[in-house]
Amino acid sequence: MSQRRSHSPFASHRAAKRQKLDFEPLTPEDYKNGIVLAPMVRSGALPTRLYALKHGASLVWGPETVDKAILHTTREVDPVTGVVSYVGKSKAIFTTHPIEKPYLIYQIGSADPEIAVQAAKAVMQDVAGFDLNCGCPKPFSTHAGMGAALLSNPDLLCSILTALRQAMPPEISVSAKIRLLPSQEDTLKLVERIINTGVSALTVHCRTRNQRKREPALIERLREIVEFVEGMGRGVAVIENGDCEGFEDGLRIRRTTGAHSVMIATAAESNPTCFSPTPLVDLEQTFIPQYIRLCKYLNNHWSSTKFCTSQFKGPHVNTSRADTKVFHEAIMHAKGYDDIASRVKPWTGEEEFKAIVATIESRHGRIAPLKLPEQESESAIASKALTPEVQKNGEAGIEKQDELVTPPTGEPDPAVMNAPLGPANEACVPMPAMLTGDLPTPTPAPVSGATVVPLA
Ligand SMILES: Cc1cc2nc3c(=O)[nH]c(=O)nc-3n(C[C@H](O)[C@H](O)[C@H](O)COP(=O)(O)O)c2cc1C
Fold first, then answer.
1. Atom 29 (ligand 1): residue with closest C-alpha?
2. pTM of the model
3. CB 103 within 8 Å of CB 366
4. 127, 84 in Cβ contact below 8 A?
5. Nearest CA to ligand 1 atom 13
6. What atom of ligand 1 comes closest to residue 264's alpha carbon?
7. Averaged pLDDT, 169-174
8. What is the chain's alpha carbon radius of gyration, rounded to the nearest angstrom?
9. Protein residue with its CA nearest to atom 11 in ligand 1
10. Which residues, including other chains, have CB under 8 Å from residue 393's CB and lie 6 or more apart?
11. 158 tagged catalytic
């Protein structure tokens, strides 16, 4: 495990001024033994990524951002929260915070090596690595030759990865996320070419381009791919993606596929604490109010907060569906944070944020949560499956998990409902851009009020 310097958001301005590397670069090893948050347009918003990190994700992917979209943005830093927003004509295209930088992979949608490099240069000061989306089957991506369209244009796909690798300094990693091709032979040929571009990691969504989400992922095809990549001897990490439900399931998938890590999308969209061996239950009490408070503190646009919370669902242990329905309905009808205040106040988002920062900083490096014990039997794994008692008592329900090394997840907060409304700071004043290296210098335009709006 690499010991990395703590990355305090409050020290980031000083760090930037020194123009030195303010984080330990990602190596292929940092992509291994992990359970990572998948790129998710809309659902992979900054607050969700922060909670994923708090609850055990080893790395987090940002939502796919099309290369051109970031080029004409202005980088703005909220002096109160430290949130960094890349603001386009009418909204923030990408939002991040320095605390996530050592763990943040920015996903690019591109069909052009030069534009991809320009896009990467525009945001490289705020991320640890870049990932190329080679799997999105949606027409908005494929019609422009991006996403899954790259799977049938390997020359272009590899030229983008090569250009990124050559243009980025060594401390910035490059990776790709693909889907399976219909034939295994063609998949292996593509994988070989991708690995030869110098990527640090390759994520394989174990579905083909034409497979729908409800069809099971073909994870049985992955072992051969992993062995093939290992046989190439470059140490590149292979990350499984498709149908992983959480920590325990991640162990099963690693054992089945031999993958170095697993990536979770849908299950994390429902419950961003699913990376923990003891994910939170009764989310309406234990998570959603806290999430909303954090979002308000970070000036996350209400429509993004509302959308993300509408996706949250988890097991009900001490609450009934009927109890929580009223809460969900209130969120659904709210037009802004004030409309939901009576149910989530006091606005203690700053404390929530500080707790997240403390948890992330207490990692002292990228602790790999999915360390697979060498000779652990299936029955030993099964015995660690979550019992109702563990679900009920949270992390206290598991006394000892020697083999399962997971980042600290902090204490679940008690639900704070119906307390008096406290003050909130929604000011978001542009600051001079923190620049490193030879990045272009965007000139922040003055703005008033909150600037963080939903990610496209
Ligand atoms: C809401 C949502 C948004 C997604 N956005 C992206 C994206 O921006 N880039 C990408 O490569 N995949 C995207 N995906 C696909 C996921 O990253 C992942 O490959 C897929 O959902 C399979 O993983 P799962 O079985 O854990 O859901 C998205 C999936 C969902 C559910």
1. 40
2. 0.81
3. yes
4. no
5. 40
6. 26
7. 96
8. 21
9. 133
10. none
11. no
Residues whose CB falls within 8 Å of the CB of residue 178, separated by 6 or more in sequence, listed in order: 134, 135, 151, 190, 191, 194, 202, 203, 204, 205
Mean pLDDT (whole number) for 152-162: 98
Residue extents of the structural domains in the chain: 9-270
Nearest CA to ligand 1 atom 14: 40
Pocket of ligand 1 (CB under 6 A): 38-43, 63-64, 107, 133, 135-136, 177, 205, 241-244, 264-267, 269
Please check whether residue 26 is in contact with residue 174, taking contact to mean a CB–CB distance below 8 angstroms.
no
Burial of 109 (0-12, 13-18, 19+ CB in 10 A): buried
Banded pLDDT at 322 (limits 50, 70, 90): confident
Q: How many CB atoms lie within 10 A of CB 241?
A: 28
Q: Which CATH class is domain 9-270?
A: alpha beta
> What is the pLDDT of the chain when averaged over all its residues?
81
| Residues in contact with 329: Cβ distance below 8 Å, sequence separation at least 6, in sequence order | none
Best of 40, 42, 134 for a ligand 1 pocket test (most atoms within 8 Å of beta carbon): 40
Q: Ligand 1 centre from 337 Cα, in Å?
A: 28
User: What is the rounded distance in angstroms from the CA atom of residue 75 to the CA atom of residue 439?
Assistant: 12
